[in-house]
Amino acid sequence: MTTQTTAAKTPDTPTAAAPRGLVGLPESTGRALATAGGVLSVISTFLAWTWTAAFPGDLTVYGYPGGLQVLVLVGGGLTALFGLASYSIKGLRWLVPAGADSALKLAALGTFVTAWYTVIAISVQLGGVVNLEPGGYVVAVVTLLALLGALALPFERPAPDPFDPEDTGWEQFRHKARHQGAVIKAAFATGPVKAPTRKLPGFAEILVIVAAMAVGLLVFTYGIGTEYDELFVGFLIIAGFGFAALFKAGLISRVSAITAKHRNVTLIGAFVAAAAFPFTQSDDQYATIGVYILIFATVALGLNIVVGLAGLLDLGYVAFLGVGAYAAAMVSGSPSSPFDFHLPFWASALIGAAVAMVFGVIIGAPTLRLRGDYLAIVTLGFGEIFRIAVLNMDGTSGPDITNGSNGISSIPNLNILGFDFGQEHTIGGFTIARFANYFLLMLLITLVVVVVFRRSSDSRIGRAWVAIREDETAALAMGINGFRVKLIAFALGATLAGLAGTVQAHVTYTVTPEQYQFAHVVPPNSAFLLAAVVLGGMGTISGPLVGAALLYLIPAKLQFLGDYQLFAFGLALVLLMRYRPEGLIPNRRRQLEFHEEAQAPTVLSKAGA
């Protein structure tokens, strides 16, 4: 008799499921499909998409992309580039230090949305899909295939959270919806930015900065020059998805590290690129928008000292812009001015900045001992007091100083060293008109403000502002004179706003009280200035500049929405603050506060950037 013994069965060790994509295709097939779809998207832009030129952009030409086809061409090129980089092709790996898959998905999605938006717009405006040429069908199919292939790329799925079996059907639905949201978020997640295996030489890094500035100038010039509504909407789509793809690829972080290493070169390069903008325009139409954007951005950068560095919520900041504008207008030789003399620009600029600084000290001295909401209410009151005061100084309700609601009009154009800013001039074969002249002058003012912001944020007083912003009680305990530090920030911010106001007075010809309200549909006003700082990124230099440009440009281009313009604009701001509360170009310290899972930087600057 034999005894048979069997080994006890041990439970199988659970193995993690292999990563898979959102679409059930093999990884190799999906990657090839996405890459080929990007290439075919580029080719399809050289075909005709419709038979008639009634649709804006003239998409009837073979061999020459136009209008929205150019945007699809850019999106398809990015998709193909990231697709090739995902194969670890030598020379392209430098472009995707954080991995290519997430960037490939976003690029393919942006191209798909732009192409299908164009196809749908053609069908709706011209009366059906019958108005599409073969190129329209081709681009719709290949962009869809590219998106499906990109979504098939595998990723690490989050483990589902357990739920109570006794939950109601609605609670189980919410649980599953949250998990699906987490899965989609993980599909577009990116890894840490890897350091380059080989360090670039100094001249190559400078070339990277030059290329980045050139691309920035090209994007800004194209966006500001969009001639019709459909093109601007397409531009917003492809620019948004393209920037997100570059960010997910880690290229933005890599270029940012290079620009931080060569800060002076970056500053000079940005200034030169901006100065080249008027020479890219055939007329003065878009230079007008450019000079107003610079005025708005310069004032927002001054407010960034008060809000972003010192942490003081100022809701009446636009009043300092008005103080500078009125002060300069009164000594400009205007027939509406109560003072019958005409000072040169340098003198009026100093007067405008000095008067704004005095007002900043007068308002700040008794109020800066307040904090938070109380300070915000006081500054809001100051802004309204300024507007009402200049409105009543008309000789009837008060002294005749500001000419009341009519304001100070007929402000003459500047004339600096014989250079008349109101006349056309030819420079190097390029003709620049009135607003281009003021654009270049305002660019110099912006450069001064940027240098002041940069030097002050890196100084001892700048570190004191950051300490006050982070924890005023702890800063006071460490021996920082909080009142004096905040008063300096308030006065400096007012000075910079007043300096910008001196140029604004000459650009607009007229200064009136209605230009300096808390909230208005046309910037600059206090609400839009604060939104520009928060939207762009508090505590940074480039953040308020980008935020101000977007806040001025987008409402001007969304006028075709009519009564829904502010609704769409407000909805976009709400979504942005929901998903990126730290701003478009965030201060690194604030980014870590909002996203605790983010990778901590190796070094933080004195201002926490």
Automatic annotation (TrEMBL):
Keyword check for Phosphoprotein: no
Matches recorded under InterPro entries: ABC_transp_permease, LivM-like
Record's bilayer topology term: Multi-pass membrane protein
TM annotation in the entry: 32-54, 66-85, 106-130, 136-155, 203-225, 231-252, 264-280, 286-308, 315-333, 345-365, 372-390, 435-453, 487-507, 527-554
Skewed-composition ranges (Low complexity): 1-19
Keyword Transferase among UniProt keywords: no
Region of interest (Disordered), residue spans: 1-21
Pfam families cross-referenced by the UniProt entry: BPD_transp_2
UniProt-listed CDD domains: TM_PBP1_LivM_like (cd06581)
Localization (cell): Cell membrane
Keywords tagged on the record: Cell membrane, Membrane, Transmembrane, Transmembrane helix
Protein name (database record): Branched-chain amino acid ABC transporter permease
